[in-house]
Amino acid sequence: MTIHRLLIPALLAVTPAAALQRTSDHGSAVIIMGQEPATPIPTMLNGSANIAVSDLIFLRLARPGVGLSTTDERAFEPQLARSWSRRDSLTVVFELDPRARWHDGVAVTAADVVFSFARMRDSTVDAQRALLLRHLASVTAEGERRVVIRFRRAYPEQFYDASYHVQLLPAHLVDTIPPGQRFASSDFVKRPVGNGPYRWLRREPGRQLELAANPDFFLGAPKLDRLVFLTVRDPEAQINLLLDGSADIFEAVPPVSGPVRLAANPAVKLLNVPSLSVLYLLFNQRAPGDRSRAHPILGDVEVRRAIGLALDRLNLARSTYGRFALPADAPVAQAHWTRSIVPRSAGYNPASARALLAGRGWIDRNGDGILEKDGVPLALRLSIPATSATRAIMAPQVQEQLRRIGIRVDIDRLDFPVFIERRTKGEFDLDLSVANMDPSPSGIVQSWSCAGRGGSNVGWFCDPGLDSLLGRSINSPAKGGHAWQAAYTRLQGDVPAVFLASPAISIAVHARFRNVSVRPESPYGDLWRWSVDPGRRIARDGTGAPPR
Amino acid sequence: MIRWLVRRTLQAVATFAIAVLLLFVLMRLAPGDPLSRLVGDRDVSAAEIEQLRRRFGVDQPLHLQLRAFLEGAARGDLGVSIEHYPDRVTSLLASRLPATLLLGGVVLFLNFTVGIWLGVRQAVRRGSRFDRWTGRLALAAYAMPGFWLGLVLVAFLSLRWRLLPAAQMTDPLLPADADALTRALDLLRHLALPALTLSLTSIALTMRHQRAAMLSVFRLDFVTAARARGLSEKQVRWGHAWRNTLVPMLTLLGLWLPVLVSGSVFVESVFNWPGLGSLAAQAIAARDYPVLLGTATLVSGAVVLAGLAADLGYAIADPRVRPS
């Protein structure tokens, strides 16, 4: 299934009883968020809610096209840059769109770009982003509208790094505010001024954030005049607000129960869009609580391989995430451009799994159904965060499928902070993790390379051979297709985890909206293109644009 | 009386201080990294985690964290929230308190007016059909979990019959310049379901207490004497008998008063009511120490104050317990 097909704008059904006949296709949207978008500011983006909202207020120079290719700069879509060119293999030149304006009316200039890159490359502001921008040598302005970005070396994702990781900040408002606590408590954070299709209107802490359409948006005035982001954490309240018509959009519909409940309201339609997430069963390579020793059971690659063979990934993916989920073969999600080149991993084969374990000396000698070796039972503890409904569904299935080959799994449902703490300290055998990734496949280096240990490589997995292949994939001038394939094959052979599922984003949308499109990396990035079917307006569409 | 009041107030202050200290220490002993929510499943380097620890002061030894908290609290500053960074805890509490006070106040009012009236009526008509059926219904309501009752009410009154909104405190698209009447009506519509849910489950308790207290007072000689003096039944009931049930009802009120401030976690969650209960629940889940400590401090203060108020109430209502 291609991303093009999944991103086709959906034309949705009607609610004639509630409709008010108007000629305008303008309207409002009330959007439910599970987290609060308290700081949708480019230098303060923690959490998916902040990231999603910031995409409406602050634009990048360019963004990946519908295929989400991160290596083909011709496929990128212009945003603040109307065009770009190359001077050589190390230099990209961006020409800014002269129509681009900040919400206070000041023009977006090359000075804003230089300032924003300088701020983002400061590791005290955002260490992770600074790491992503480490290959940039310089960012300079040539006049008001031209920006020149030079790299330290040639690699296929230069353009992606130059355009995707930085949303611009207004230098004329921010350059006098030092980063850190003073910036966090500044008026700019309380009332940010952006350059995107929506401008900040007001925020009621803990309750809602309201944006208003920017009628002067240089790429076209948005049709939805007001966007209200409601913070609703309770899963029942989230669905109830959709069902009683108080809200229009919700992007985290529970995959199994959600569609059943939403079927009660024909005014709400469900869209499924490929995501950038992968759920996996992570193996701790080191002894829990003592990283100087190998894990007594999972340190053996044959045991890890047997566990992979014993899990019916297709069944697990579909029973947990519904029919739009796909089994994953590597840390590659449905929406990644490398998805099509990932080799298929070994399929479900419990008989082979049992044989592998027997070959390593794991045999049920006392007839209790659990394998033993040297008197030690093959027993493992599986950590999951108690807040995750999907992992709560999947964990008992994993437990049962492993029981069938003689492995006892005890599930620890942990508070989220405890779950993360145990991961970070390496105090686990197995855990069900979700990786929410960038569009770039090179992000896997952080979790699966030797250098990632101590950071996000919490399983302490290390294979220098894989590191070499990943380095070659990222740096290959031939856009890395074959190199990536070799890296994925090596990773599958090492079995640092069983990659179980790549879910789809299930997003509920009111049926009156037209031109609906949802992007995997930015669910609301195209919201400004949505409109309301004039014949299907409801009362709240008539509230119009709020005063400036 | 004044010496008693001063002594009782000092006791209350000491209780409050001990409670806050215990809360501070116990929270730090609980497992779980307070920065986990910020980190989540995101790829974060060790350097960034250290940077975050420094920002929130959780890299400091416990005694220094305590000192910083006490110094801040003395200035009226409870620090910065980790979960809601960069919002300050005091502003978060201030933004959530009105919603909790409104819901708690309405529920407390309904609880004690309707509950007392029903309890007195039951006692007066003891053994009647009204007494039996009210008792059964009250028991059933009391046995229902609040969140479950809330979901049932939403299913019928909001989703099926479309009479009331399913959640929220206000209409999200209510214009900022809407007039006071529009705002009040909107608020009432949204308040109805959470208030009804909490009232239905709590009135039963007040009613049962009031009924038992009235029945024990009806048996006493002064009630017979009042009737013998020719007072009307209404005067006997409310002017003599009911006044003598005030002490147990004040005890009950003293127990209920902190709920006015602490809110109801489950009902606030189900109705997305932006009160202190749901704020505290989120803070617990995220190990947001500053918010948790701020909420706990506020609630401890309310408990201590309610206890003090109840003691004062006894002294006013019943001369026998008034200190000499």
Walk me through what this model shows.
The complex is a heterodimer of chains A (548) and B (324). By secondary structure, chain A is an alpha+beta fold. Chain A contains 18 helices and 24 strands. The longest helix of chain A has 15 residues, at 389-403. Residues 1-23 of chain A have low confidence and may be disordered. Chain B has 324 residues and is mainly α. Chain B is built from 14 helices and no strands. In chain B, helix 5 runs parallel beside helix 14, helix 6 crosses helix 8 and helix 7 crosses helix 8 (180-218). Chain B is globular and about 85 Å long. The mean pLDDT of chain B is 86. Chains A and B meet through helix 4, strand 10, helix 9, helix 15 and strand 20 of A and helix 2, helix 3, helix 5, helix 7 and helix 13 of B.
Q: What is the end-to-end distance of chain A?
A: 44 Å
Overall form of chain B: globular
Main beta sheet strand tally, sense and closure of chain A: 7 strands, mixed
| Count of DSSP strands of chain B | 0
Question: What is shown here, in short?
Answer:
The complex is a heterodimer of chains A (548) and B (324). By secondary structure, chain A is of the alpha+beta class.
